[in-house]
Specification:
Elements: H1 2-21, H2 28-58, H3 64-96, H4 99-131, H5 135-158, H6 161-173, H7 181-188, H8 206-212, H9 232-241
């Protein structure tokens, strides 16, 4: 209620101030214009606050200023369109109307313009500031701050950023292998130009391998030699020991 009353007082006071600065005469039409401004300003504020009331249960646990900010964004298009469409006929009366209608339309023009602006830039911020001073909102803000600090602490324990930095530095310090890796791979794998598949390795000559004293790469490896029987004198020595 307090932001709504402040917004209405602001709109009527601004319209009277500009009306008096322009040197206009206060008549019955001026009073009617001020009453129209009062109703329009209050109606525009109610639209914004009704959207805030709808978003409070939907955004439970969020700061109140976030709820107000989202509500203002949702009603911003509606407020601008309503203000522009209302100012169009008032501008026509201001330009083409007589002396009486001209003073009336001038007051309406100033009041409705200020009313559309005050519902967004005055009443909604005051509502957010006023609501955050309540004890329940203060406790909720303290809980959110403690939760954020706890989450930040847990995240810092789980992921050590300095460890990642040290690992990156160690990987960067490792020198690359010498030689041309591409040339070595080209020598190992030769691609067959006919079918695009790696060429089959040539069979190995068993005789050449045997002369070098190495086992062939294919086939079963040679079996292990059979265990040797103990000699006779070893058997007699064991019997004497027993």
């Amino acid at each position: 209620a307090l932001p709504s009353l402040l917004s209405v007082v602001h709109d009527v006071w601004l319209a009277l101030t500009i009306y008096s600065i322009a040197g206009k005469e206060v008549t019955g039409a001026t009073v009617a214009a001020l009453l129209t401004i009062l109703g329009y300003s209050l109606y525009d504020v109610v639209i914004v606050f009704d959207r805030i009331r709808e978003n409070v249960p939907l955004m439970r646990g969020r700061p109140y200023r976030d709820i107000v900010n989202k509500s203002v964004h949702e009603t911003l298009t509606r407020s601008i369109i309503t203000m522009v469409l209302t100012l169009l006929p008032i501008t026509v009366l201001l330009i083409f109307g007589g002396e009486t209608l001209r003073d009336f339309s001038f007051a309406l023009f100033v009041g409705i313009l200020s009313g559309g602006v005050s519902s967004i830039f005055i009443s909604a911020p005051i509502a957010a500031l006023w609501k955050e001073r309540e004890p329940n909102e203060v406790k909720a803000a303290a809980r959110r701050a403690r939760k954020a600090a706890r989450v930040a602490t847990v995240d810092s324990d789980i992921m050590d950023v300095s460890a990642f930095n040290r690992a990156d530095a160690a990987l960067a310090a490792v020198s690359e292998p010498a030689g041309d890796t591409g040339a070595i791979l080209d020598e190992i794998v030769e691609v067959d130009s006919s079918n695009g598949r790696p060429a089959e390795p040539e069979p190995l000559d068993v005789g050449d391998v045997a002369d070098d004293g190495a086992f062939p790469p294919t086939g079963d490896p040679p079996s292990a030699p059979p265990p040797q029987k103990p000699r006779r004198h070893q058997t007699a020595r064991r019997k004497r020991r027993r």
